[in-house]
User: Which sequence fits this backbone?
């Protein structure tokens, strides 16, 4: 009996220790990081009011408190003995706070999009070509060479292949699990990651030329497609009996054969507006105006004074009685003195010549 009790005690201990601990409805999954640190993941079955094909309830695991360097390869290696991962949808804390109420709408849109995609039946050859093109795009995409880091407290919806696999994940035993991947060197971290970012942000001239050429080819193809659609719709009557009037833009070709498009200029030319300045609005403007007027008066006075001096030097001095007699005879009160002197000189000369 004692032996049986000891056996029962030994068998009960591993069964209790093999289960994961629970906290507030979550299964606590510890993983061992670098330098002996332990990170705790929290997981449970996904629950939602609306069932979506993107995140089905019976095949989706809700995973909380992801490490910042989490990738799909990490999760596949972590859950490899228990489930096969189909898709992983990451969420950050900012998205959780801002878009918490829009989860149902997003799920409905995902279901509609996937239902439309399921209606399209592709042959095996078309599927192979499509998969090859997608793989080629992923290889050529430089962003795939850089690990996308998550924010602290991020979570994810992990979709597995079968409902039994989800139960296996929730009932997995407690043991040491390391957080690493085989191709860790291909997705660097730390200084190596920033160095890779710098090298990708400064591509070579040949790579830039290839990107520019591909962009120009796509742009020209889109322009030709627009022209073709516009030509088909020209003078075409719709269901209501109206004819759509379209406008043709002027296009030309350069010497190298490339197409140039001239922008349409507006008929109305906008004239530049003159600056409106207020005159004599401020006191300093009034002071400056008065000062300028005084300066102009002084200049004129100096000019008149110089003219009078020149007349005095050139003209002989007339008798006072003659100038006074002339001023009384002809009323020149409003004329300046040098004009009176000049007129008196002219009259004096004429009188002398006449005599």
Assistant:
């Amino acid at each position: 009996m004692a032996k049986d009790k000891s056996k029962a005690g030994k068998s009960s201990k591993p069964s209790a220790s093999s289960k994961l601990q629970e906290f507030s409805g979550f299964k606590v999954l510890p993983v061992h990081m670098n330098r002996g640190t332990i990170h705790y993941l929290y997981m449970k079955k996904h629950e939602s009011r609306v069932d979506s094909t993107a995140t089905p309830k019976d095949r989706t695991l809700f995973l909380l408190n992801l490490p910042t360097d989490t990738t799909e390869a990490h999760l596949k290696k972590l859950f490899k003995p228990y489930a096969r991962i189909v898709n992983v949808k990451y969420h950050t804390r900012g998205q959780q706070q801002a878009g918490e109420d829009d989860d149902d709408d997003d799920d409905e849109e995902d279901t509609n999009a996937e239902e439309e995609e399921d209606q399209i039946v592709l042959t095996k050859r078309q599927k192979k070509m499509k998969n090859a093109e997608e793989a080629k795009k992923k290889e050529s995409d430089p962003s795939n060479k850089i690990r996308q880091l998550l924010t602290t407290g991020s979570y994810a919806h992990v979709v597995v292949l079968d409902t039994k696999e989800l139960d296996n994940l929730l009932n997995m035993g407690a043991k040491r699990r390391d957080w690493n991947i085989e191709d860790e060197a291909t997705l660097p971290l730390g200084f190596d990651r920033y160095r890779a970012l710098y090298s990708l942000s400064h591509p070579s001239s040949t790579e830039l030329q290839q990107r520019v050429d591909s962009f120009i080819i796509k742009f020209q193809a889109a322009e030709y497609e627009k022209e073709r659609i516009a030509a088909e719709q020209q003078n075409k009557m719709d269901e209501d009996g109206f004819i759509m009037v379209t406008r043709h833009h002027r296009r030309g070709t350069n010497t190298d054969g490339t197409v140039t498009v001239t922008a349409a200029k507006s008929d109305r030319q906008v004239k530049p507006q003159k600056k409106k300045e207020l005159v004599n609005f401020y006191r300093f403007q009034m002071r400056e105006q008065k000062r300028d007027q005084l300066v102009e008066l002084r200049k004129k006075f100096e000019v008149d004074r110089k003219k009078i001096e020149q007349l005095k030097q050139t003209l002989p001095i007339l008798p006072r009685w003659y100038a006074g007699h002339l001023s009384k005879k002809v009323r020149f009160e409003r004329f300046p003195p040098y004009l009176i002197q000049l007129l008196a000189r002219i009259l004096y000369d004429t009188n002398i010549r006449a005599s």
In short: Residues 283-314 form one domain. The longest helix spans residues 283-314. The chain has four domains: 2-120+149-187, 190-231, 283-314, 316-355. The first strand starts at residue 22 and ends at 23.
